[in-house]
């Protein structure tokens, strides 16, 4: 039995026609999958690029907002300082002079604070208390607050200071005392 080159090629051809079709199909499928893979890579790169630009934009917006908040805080602090200095100036301007206080004490023979220092201390305490209670408070509550720090005063003393300093304090129709700066 001798083998020739032509005999050995024939059986392979039968197998190769069937295999050749499957190889062609596999190559086409491979090319198709390669194209899909390339398309997915491009899409991922595009999405990544878009997200990166969005992130940069958001970071810029956050920085701008942080700067705005910082500027706003600085402006608020400046306004608070100005407001406090204006209130202090108003209180200083509205505080009765010693001669006016003496005249009020002489004109009212009711129970009055004993001296000028006591009167000024009561005015200061009442101003602080009423500035915290800007909607108003009763005479009893004001007296309770003052009596905690100024033991020697009476309820009549507090009332006389409130009624004697109409440029600072006012009483509403509901008998609530208010600091005048809050409803000018």
Detail the poorly predicted runs.
108-113
Distance between the termini: 128 Å
Average pLDDT, to the nearest integer? 78
Structural class: mainly alpha
Order of helices and strands: HHHHHEE
Shape: rod-shaped
Instruction: State the strand order across the main sheet.
Output: 1-2
Total E-strand runs: 2
Over all CA atoms, what is the radius of gyration? 46 Å
Helix amount, in percent? Answer: over 70%
The amount of beta strand, in percent, is: under 5%
The tally of domains stands at: 2
- Summed up, the helix count is 5
The description of the largest β-sheet is: 2 strands, antiparallel
Description:
- A hairpin with a 5-residue loop joins β1 (169-171) and β2 (177-179).
- The radius of gyration is 46 Å and the shape is rod-shaped.
- It folds into two domains: 1-94; 97-183, Orthogonal Bundle (Arc Repressor Mutant, subunit A).
- The model is unreliable at 108-113 (pLDDT under 50).
- By secondary structure, it is mainly α.
- The chain contains five helices and two strands.
- The longest helix is centred in the N-terminal third of the chain and has 90 residues, at 5-94.
What's this model, at a glance?
The protein has 184 residues and is mainly α. It has five helices and two strands; from the N terminus they run αααααββ. It has a two-stranded antiparallel ribbon with strand order 1-2.
